[in-house]
Write a structure and sequence with these properties.
Number of domains: 1
Largest sheet: none
Oligomer: single chain
Structural class: mainly alpha
Helix content: 55-70%
Shape: elongated
């Protein structure tokens, strides 16, 4: 069943040095990266840093609120 399972002859298994990589063995096409890694990583890093700042602000707000109620 293409994309789910496959049965290969032992010669093909030997050809790949007995490495049974699921994507190759079930007949799925190799996905090509259609994006620039450095650009994408830079975007993700900026997003992560913004989330860290937001987390710090929220943590301070929570701590202040807990202090106000005496906890």
């Amino acid at each position: 069943m293409k994309g789910f399972c496959n049965v290969d002859p032992i010669e093909r298994v030997r050809e790949f040095n007995y490495v049974l990589t699921p994507g190759r063995d079930v007949g799925l096409p190799d996905d090509e990266d259609d994006f620039d890694f450095k650009e994408r990583f830079t975007q993700l890093k900026a997003e992560f840093e913004a989330q860290l700042w937001e987390e710090a602000k929220l943590n301070a707000l929570i701590a202040k609120s807990l202090w106000r109620v005496g906890i």
